[in-house]
Amino acid sequence: MTPTRGERNNNPGNLRKGSPWQGLSRAQPDTDFCSFDDPVYGIRALAKVLLLYGMKGVDTVAAIIARWAPSNENNTAAYIAAVAGCMKVDPNTHLDVSEYGQLYPLVDAIIRHENGRNIYPRTTMDAGLALAGVSK
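RE: above sequence
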């Protein structure tokens, strides 16, 4: 199984370069996307962005994905449908991403959409969310 770009960069959310994230690798071989020392830090960064969105009132799958994956770079409508389907929620349902039970499936769905799969065990996912401040 060939690693995806997000997997190679330990950045399963495919966050673009720009923010000084915890756990960034010294080497940044990708010209566009962050590379992290460990996927836990990539998952943490993804979760931190989602938590920031929630604090700003961006709290539905439709609003979150429209901001996360703008239509000038993505098929945002398909992305919204995929994430909402994976989470089994209406795209306009309000989420509380500060709750583990809502953040975990959202992070998982974004990783699946960005990479076509989620290769990370629950322990890695949980460690990333815990570093972002959200635990079971």
